[in-house]
């Protein structure tokens, strides 16, 4: 492109085409607009009832927009410009109640699957009727309500799982105590035999059949170092000397030994 000066001294832009020759441009066609990201975000998200506090948190792509109270919870609102970098994804993951926005449906589809954070695109949510930009908050709140209900159901399921594990561990302890006492009776009855037969410790498959607890759960309970008494009972079953010294639940034995010391 080149400029020629007319009789009044104005610069007139021309495109130099090698096939059709010079082509005059209207100066309006050369106007370029640079959009302020912070001002655009403030304008758009205030339509969505967001208390805006715009700040770029991870260059060049991640912006913190502010807070919004949707579905009875305070939500951190974040916005991604372009691609989501690894640093930006790590930052987003710090917020449990974050809602992430992107500009277009295509951008959302590109990012989906890389993070667990709830995400919306402005292209689908905002509507311009020729006079004003409009936003229907119900579209977001419906999705948030569904997600909150799923999270509530999952959080209620965890205590039930913990209660089941506690009952299983107690059942397993009682079974192991009975086995230790049976082994002790065996060794006491055969202590005068020159070569007494070692009392066989049942394997985890047999324990599963005795207790009705799955073999994988038993394996997990025995590996958990927090289950001290359970692990000690299991180890005792494989040690004839410990079996002969056994006089009750391991926790009571430990207290007696501490008092003797």
Radius of gyration using CA atoms only: 36 Å
Strand/helix succession: EEEHEEEHEHEHEEHHHHHH
N-to-C terminal Cα separation, in Å?
96 Å
Helical content stands at 40-55%
- The total beta strand count reads 10
Strand content: 15-25%
Question: What about the largest sheet?
Answer: 5 strands, mixed
Unreliably modeled segments: 250-261
Question: What is the global morphology?
Answer: elongated
Round the mean pLDDT to the nearest integer and report it. 83
Number of helical regions: 10
Q: Give me the side-by-side strand order of the main sheet.
A: 4-5-6-7-8
Describe this protein's structure.
- The chain has 261 residues and is an alpha+beta fold.
- The chain has 3 domains: 32 residues, no CATH class; 107 residues, no CATH class; 100 residues, no CATH class.
- The chain is 48% helix and 21% strand.
- The strands form 3 sheets. Strands 4-5-6-7-8 form a 5-stranded mixed sheet, sandwiched between helices. It has a 3-stranded antiparallel sheet with strand order 1-2-3, with no helix packed on it. Strands 9-10 form a two-stranded antiparallel ribbon.
- A hairpin with a 2-residue loop joins β5 and β6.
- α5 runs parallel beside α8.
- It is elongated, with a radius of gyration of 36 Å.
- The termini are far apart.
- The C terminus is likely disordered.
Secondary-structure blueprint:
Elements: E1 2-5, E2 11-17, E3 21-24, H1 37-46, E4 51-58, E5 62-70, E6 73-80, H2 86-92, E7 98-102, H3 105-111, E8 118-121, H4 122-125, E9 126-128, E10 133-135, H5 137-189, H6 204-211, H7 215-223, H8 228-236, H9 240-245, H10 250-260
Parallel strand pairs: 6-7, 7-8
Antiparallel strand pairs: 1-2, 2-3, 4-5, 5-6, 9-10
């Amino acid at each position: 492109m080149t400029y020629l000066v007319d009789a009044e001294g104005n610069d007139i832009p021309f495109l130099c085409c090698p096939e059709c020759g010079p082509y005059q441009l209207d100066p309006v066609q050369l106007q370029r607009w640079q959009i302020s990201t912070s001002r655009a975000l403030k304008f758009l998200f205030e339509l969505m009832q967001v208390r805006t506090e715009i700040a770029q948190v991870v260059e060049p792509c991640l912006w913190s927009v502010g807070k919004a109270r949707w579905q009875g919870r305070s939500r951190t609102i974040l916005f991604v410009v372009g691609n989501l970098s690894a640093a930006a994804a790590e930052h987003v993951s710090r917020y449990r109640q974050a809602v992430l926005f992107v500009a277009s449906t295509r951008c959302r589809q590109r990012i989906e699957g890389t993070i667990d954070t709830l995400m919306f695109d402005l292209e689908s949510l905002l509507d311009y009727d020729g006079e004003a930009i409009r936003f229907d908050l119900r579209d977001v709140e419906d999705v948030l309500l569904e997600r909150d209900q799923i999270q509530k159901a999952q959080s209620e399921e965890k205590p039930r799982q913990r209660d089941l594990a506690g009952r299983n561990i107690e059942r397993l302890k009682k079974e192991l105590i009975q086995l230790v006492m049976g082994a002790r009776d065996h060794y006491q009855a055969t202590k005068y035999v020159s070569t007494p037969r070692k009392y066989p410790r049942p394997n985890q498959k047999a324990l599963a059949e005795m207790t009705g607890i799955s073999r994988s759960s038993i394996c997990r309970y025995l590996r958990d170092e927090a289950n001290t008494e359970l692990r000690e009972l299991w180890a005792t079953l494989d040690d004839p000397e410990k079996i002969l010294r056994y006089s009750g639940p391991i926790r009571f034995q430990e207290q007696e030994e501490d008092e003797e010391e």
